[in-house]
C-alpha cells in the first residue's frame, strides 16, 4: 500500500508571536519540506486561498510565499491546473537524503529550547539568521568590509610598540565604561565632526554596534515593548531587537528616511525606534530635517527613545558629513551609536555609545554589571591615533580612495552588467545598489550564478520584512581594487549571460 503524504498545512507551523513575517515562515518551512523530501517532486500544493484558510492566515501571506518559492525554482505553476513541487536539482536531492540527520538535529534543538526562557529562545532564533564564523578574505562584491589593504599598519604598529615600551598600557582592571582619555578624545571628535553634544562622561566604549544596540534596548525597553525599525533594516539591529523579546514594527523608508506618519499609523504607542538617519542602511537615504524634527517630536510626546546608528557617516563624497540627529535633540531622547569597524578595521572591535544626560548613571551601572570592554592596549592606541592626528588624515585618504573605487565599480557595472542591473552613483557609503531591470528575474538566481563565478552578492530583500515590489542587488566596493572589481564584473557578466543563453536553448 503506497505511503500517504502528509497534507501541506501539517508541515507548516505558524507562530504569530515571532518577529519573522508570516509569509517568510510559510516560505521557509515549505522550502525545508521540499529539500528534505517530505514534499516530493510533482506533488500539487493547495490553492493559496485553501492553504490560507487551513493555516488561519491572510491569503497574501501564502501568495507571497508561493511567489518566492517559484522564483527560486522550488515550485512551478502549470497554468490553471495548479502549483506543483518542481523536480529537485541533484544538490537538493542530496540535501533530502540527509533529512533524517537534519530532522534529528532540529528535534534536539527544539527540545533544548523548551528548557530555555522565552527571551533566550528568541536570542537563539535571531542568532541563526546572522552570518557565522570567520568571514575570511573579502570576496567581490561583499558589503560592509572596509579597505584594510591600505590601512596605515606601520603607524599603528609603532603606536602599539611605543605604548608597551613606555609601560603605559594598564595591566589591571579598567573602568568598565572605558578609558577616560579615549572617551574624552571621542567626545571632542564627535563634537567637531558630527555635531554631537556631549561631555566625556556620556561616552561609553563598546565592542561594536551590535553590543551598543543590545545594551541600549535592554536598558530603556522591556520585553513586549513595540519598537519601530526601518524597512529595510540592518539585520544585526533586527537580531538584537528580536533577541530581547521586543516587538519589532517594520516602518517603510522613503527618500527622506523612515516615515514617521507610517510609524504612527502602524504603532502609535511604540516605546522606541532604531534609525540610521545620516545614511540609511541599505538604501542610502538621508533623513530630511523636517523628518528629523517630526521623529524627535514624536519621541518627546510618546516618552520614547531613539537609537541613532551612525555607522558610516564619515564616508560622504559630495559634501561634508551631515550633522547627527543627536545634535538636534533638546529632550535627551537620543542614544547615539558609532563604531571604528568601518573607519579603522573590523577586527579592532572598538565602538562607542553616547548616552543622554539623564541615563548616564544607569549606563554606568549597566557597564559595571556587565564588565565587558575593549582591551586596554586597543583603547590606548585608538586614543593616540585620534589625538596625534592620524585618524583625521586616515579619514581624508579613505574618502578619496572610496570615491575612486565607487567610480570604478560604477564604470564596470554600467559597462558589463547594464543588461541586468541599473546601477547609479551614491553620495555616501561603501556599497552601490543595482536595481534588477527585469522584474520577472529572481535575485536568488542572480546570486546563485554570481556564487558560481566567485562573486558574493546580497539581495535587498534580505533586509526587508515585506517582499519588495522591485528587488535589487547590493554591490560592495570599499575593500576591492579597481582591477579586482573589473575582473569580477567580467566573470559575473559571463555567468549571467550563460544563464540567459541556457534559458533560450531550453525554450527552443
Which strand order do you get reading across the main beta sheet?
Answer: 4-11-10-9-8-5-6-7
Question: How much of the residues is beta strand, in percent?
Answer: 5-15%
Q: What's the CATH topology label of the largest domain?
A: Aspartate Aminotransferase, domain 2
Supply Rg.
Answer: 25 Å
**Could you tell me the mean pLDDT?**
85
Number of helices: 17
- Name the shape in a single word: globular
- The overall strand count is 15
Query: What's the CATH first level of the largest domain?
Result: Alpha Beta
Q: Which structural category do the helix and sheet elements fall into?
A: alpha/beta
Write structural notes for this entry:
The C terminus is likely disordered. The longest helix is centred in the C-terminal third of the chain and has 27 residues. This protein folds into 3 domains: 108 residues, Orthogonal Bundle (Arc Repressor Mutant, subunit A); 244 residues, Type I PLP-dependent aspartate aminotransferase-like (Major domain) (Aspartate Aminotransferase, domain 2, 3-Layer(aba) Sandwich), CATH 3.40.640.10; 111 residues, Aspartate Aminotransferase, domain 1 (Alpha-Beta Complex). The protein has 508 residues and is an alpha/beta fold. The two termini are 41 Å apart. Helix content is 44%, strand content 13%.
